[in-house]
Write a structure and sequence with these properties.
Blueprint lengths: L2 E7 L11 E6 L7 E5 L6 E5 L10 H6 L4 H12 L5 H10 L1
């Protein structure tokens, strides 16, 4: 799967650089183009969700840690247009930030 990392950070007070928080754009998964990662290796977890799912506040802290809060604005914009953004369109917005 082709992914592009668009944000990385560490929780406040985290000293372990082996436990990053990441946000990705999954180029091969247009129905769930936003990927989340926590940790690395066997201790790492991740998932892929739709842009609309970002409107659930459960993702707010992860987005903030990675500097990707702008994705919530993009999700609201997508919601108002009722047409999903493609992974390439999401990356295009990121490259303009």
């Amino acid at each position: 799967m082709r992914c592009r990392n668009i944000g990385r950070g560490f929780a406040v007070g985290a000293k372990d650089e082996n436990y990053p928080y990441d946000v990705f754009v999954n180029l091969d998964l247009p129905e769930a183009p936003i990927g989340f990662g926590e940790g690395t290796g066997f201790g790492g977890v991740g998932c892929s969700i739709s842009l609309q799912a970002l409107l659930n506040e459960d993702w707010t802290e992860h987005l903030r840690i990675c500097g990707c809060e702008w994705l919530m604005d993009l999700a609201r914009e997508e919601n108002s247009h009722a047409v999903p953004f493609t992974p390439d369109e999401i990356l295009g917005r990121w490259e303009k930030i």
